[in-house]
Amino acid sequence: MKAFIEILREKYGLAQPEAEKLLEQMELLTYRKGEHIVREGERNSSFYLVADGIWRGHYLRDGVDISLWFAFQGDSIFSSWGYVAGLPSLVSIEAMSDSRVYRISKSKLETFFSSSVLFANIGRIIFERQFLDMENWMINGGAAQAKQRYLALLEQNPELLQHVPLKHIASYLFITPQSLSRIRAELSKKKM
Questions:
Q1: What is the mean pLDDT of residues 31-47?
Q2: How far apart are CA 156 and CA 153, in angstroms?
Q3: Distance CA 177, CA 171 (A)
Q4: Which residues pair with 38 in a beta bridge?
Q5: Closest among 28, 83, 18 to 57, alpha carbons compared
Q6: What three-state secondary structure class fits 10?
């Protein structure tokens, strides 16, 4: 847990005592590759922090599986519709590798946040980080070159290729699997 607290300190700027207090409120769960914390159409209002492993948020549209995001150690994951509005999730959240997450119910998290201004600021910081990450992806995801998006993704998360099928990475990059194969082949030729 000490190593994970350091990750929370680094990612969110939390002080060690506050990170410890947050984790004390949470339950550590283990998931196998392919298991879900929520599927599209189900309800789940809990909040999670990824202790280790890789997660994918995705949905189906006209039979096509579309990846929205990937989450890694220290990232928060939750169904926005489930957490905020108590409605069925619009996305499925799936483990791409064997993983561990810290979980807390929305009601318990809100009680924790309302117990002090310091703890309320933890919530603000975590959710602000979520917004920054989302906006960063929206801006960079719109980059003109699919190759640039692919290289940026690999630079930030090199372990992704070990755990996530290329078809999911392609949909996340807004390209076809065939286009991704061409990009990878081109990059392989340059390495030779």
A1: 97
A2: 5
A3: 8
A4: 93
A5: 83
A6: helix
Are the C-beta atoms of residues 70 and 20 closer than 8 Å to each other? no
Backbone dihedral region of 62: left (phi > 0), alpha (psi from -120 to 50 degrees) or beta? left
Query: Looking at the predicted structure, is the pLDDT value of residue 145 above 90?
Result: no
95 pairs with which residues across the strands? 55
- Other Cβ atoms less than 10 A from the Cβ of 180: the count is 20
Among the residues of 25-116, which ranges form H helices?
A: 80, 106-114
CA dihedral (131, 135, 138, 140) in degrees, to 10, reads -130
Question: At residue 61, what are phi and psi to the nearest 5 degrees?
Answer: -135, 115
**Cα–Cα distance measured from residue 58 to residue 142, given in angstroms and rounded to the nearest whole number:** 18
Size of the chain, expressed as the number of residues it contains: 192
pLDDT in tens, 97-122: 999 999 999 999 999 999 999 889 88
SS3 27: strand
What pTM was estimated for this model as a whole? 0.80
Structure tokens at 177: 């699997």
Task: Give the DSSP letter string of 141-177.
Answer: HT-S-HHHHHHHHHHH-TTHHHHS-HHHHHHHTTS-H
Coil, strand, or helix at residue 83? Answer: helix
